Give the backbone structure.
Amino acid sequence: MKIDNFLIIFGFFLIFKKVNSLTEGNENIIMNFYYSETNNTCITNISDIIDENAVASAVYNKTYEEIGWDYLAISSYQKTDDKYNDSIKAYGMGYLEGVLTKNRIFSHYTNFKTYFLYEYNNIEFVKQMFFGFYQKNFEYMEKKSLENMDHNITWEHVHYICQQLKGLYDGYKSVADSQEQIEFSEFLILAGTADALDIKQHLLKSQNFNQMTKEEIDRYILLNSRCSALIRLANDSSDIWFGHNTWNYYVLMIRIFKEYRFKTNKGSEKSKTTVFSSYPGALSSIDEFYYLDSNLLVMGTSNTVINDELYKLITHESLLVWVRQILANRLASSAENWTELFKIENSGTNNAQIMVLDMNKINLEDKKIENKTLMIIEQIPKYTETVDATNYLLEGYWPSFNIPFTNKIYSDSGYPVETNNGIPENTRYTQSPRAKIFKRDSKKVNSQEDFKKFIRYNDYMNDAFSNNSASGSIAGRSDLLSKNSVCYGAIDAKYFSVKELLEGKLIAHIISGPTNDIQKTFSFSNNTCSENKEKLSHIGVNDVWNFPWIHYNFQLFNNNITSEDNSPSAKNPLMYFVFAGIGVILLIIVIIVIYFLYQNMKSYNKLNKDINSTSFKGNLVNEDEESDKSLA
């Protein structure tokens, strides 16, 4: 081959590789869902536009590999006519999500099942019991909702939730190959992941709390603690920061930030739009972190029950927490109303403290905050208790750290635990490590930058309150424990600024991955966890977790993702074309220069007509890691 042709071909190869590297896996997909009632058939199509006449439409930004989050926005038909019934609108929303997120769903399901069932010898027996509970629970919900939906608004919306979940499953099945098919009973666990630990304890009685040591109790609570949360009123009352980090197993760090808009023909819902952090296959947050366009903010932290008798009260004939949260989110007109709706059909699973902030009762300009602005509800099986915590907020802050606040919930849950060798520190409301850190540092938080640092705080080697435990801080890192380390801890952080929201700036501030502000960056390939490596299936999960804070401007289908350290940190197709165009131009210039250099070389060396070999070393300079990330 002549060197002229070689250079041209090689040049176009480099151009292709550069463009491909900028766009590979970086997708911004618009999809519409249509339904033919005559033929009872579903049709989806990828489009350049949102079709306002479709049953449902979705925008999906696959940005997980770059920023630790995908972004998914789904809307049902929004016009005021009754062109489609509400059941098919809910189904269509689910179907779109199943089709678009199929790969994420299968990876997340595989990782969860591997980790969750690894310790059991008779896996088939456990699966039959465990997944059977979810199946019976779904059948109960579906049957009762069909019986009551015509005269009861709560059960009407339970029916829509069931339809959306069935659509999610059918959409997934329609594009999954034979090796990726999942039984519906097993698929249900993705929706109810947060309920799973309490269901497992109920079915398998995997712990006997009365015979556990202080250290065993502490560890059990640690591995069932799911969040730290802070609601902070600025010293000058100019803002309220409402934030949270989720504690979870690192193998479950496939994350999707979601925005749903569901409008019924009757207009029975108080909130049409819900924005929340979430996971593949889930219709709720699982984290328990929400913005509602009814001007409510909702978040929760788990309260671990260490009373064997309470687990006996759990039944499948109830509404699991993920369902009740969706119901309360859609139907509540106030924070107080939200807590009342959440009590309905208490499952006794995912027992937690839920915080609801009513922004309708806040006037930051006049520095007025009404009673019942901040409502707290705590749950155990067969019992809930509600508190107006507004006065605590007015004093500066409200903390939440996985120990019950209300006296009855605290004592009935089994706190404080008396063991043969003392009282575990994680069962004392005022004396646990996080309780002491919250008390010491919360009032030092007076800016968004302060909040970011606090909600990601872990300086266990230098902070006496942490007792030299990597788990004993606001953002736990159990992978760094000196012994019996576990790939578990705070896997994200996120917050809302009430001031921004009240000004119409619909922004969520989020970051993904275990904290590395002070501690080393976590990576699966270099982890120090003591667990069996076979248990740590992390298919589709990022290896290295070193992402910046970003913020989402979450107006439906018009989301804008930007880095909060002044650098692009998510995908934007326009930016990719800009980068690709620059790359193409530079490569063309390089090829032209090389070509003319070669022509000059030929003119000086006309006698050498045989070119025995050619070599070309391309040197593509990597852009700064932050600048190479795209905006969506």
DSSP finds 18 helices and 21 strands in the chain.
